[in-house]
Design goal:
By secondary structure, this protein is an alpha/beta fold. It has 10 helices and 10 strands. It folds into 2 domains: 121 residues, Response regulator (Rossmann fold, 3-Layer(aba) Sandwich); 131 residues, Rossmann fold (3-Layer(aba) Sandwich), CATH 3.40.50.
Length: 261
Amino acid sequence: MESPHILIIDDDDTVLIILEKYLKDGGFQVTKANDAFSGMASIRQNRDIRLIISDINMPGMTGIDMLEAIKNLRTLAHIPILMLTTDTAKKTVERARELGACGFMSKPFKPDALIAYVKKIIDVPVDFKEQQKAELVKDKVIMLVSDDPMLMVKAESLEEFGYSLQIVDSGEGAIQLFKDKPNISMIITGLHLADMDAYQLCWSVHQISLDIPVICVAMQGEEQTTNLGGTREQPDLFLEDPMEALLMDEVEAIFTRLTSA
């Protein structure tokens, strides 16, 4: 059977070379384009393209402009488009989602996470190891507590791997949701929330259940605080500005430990 054909578009030649290697090693055919105009031409010349992976910030026609153009063409609108970028501004992400982007991965990325994501999007059969991962994530509900758009983008990638995601933007909202939905399997929280910090949230959650793991993520520029007064409790894991792949690896590792315990 012929390998699925993927078009990658980025104005950075280094990124194109790395992406091409990862995808070819993963068993895919690859066509490259270094701007959106060339990408549009490649789509018309290669009618077997199953997925487009495109940067957002490119000169001339941006990835967002190209996304809109493709989704407005009846013969091309069916092709899924994965946005690969460093631009995770909330407005940009929301616009891309409105236009029909199938997902996001921010640079840099891990090869295994990229290939797994791509296979899920284009429905390539998974191997035994991936089937085991599917069993691990089955029925797992993760609560994300944050109003940071960058962290939201990183955490939302967990949905592409089968996790259910519940998003709230405050500590009090998280505590109430946890009380209302005892099936929450894990909490991922930003370091600083509008009404409390991660340590206070962790303490409050563990008053309800000691079994719930809490991951605290500090985004770029945030500093970890320690014992600022009152009763506090450490999260199970502290990550500093992780890539999606690292976040997914750590989530998987925690669930694997809990399953085997």
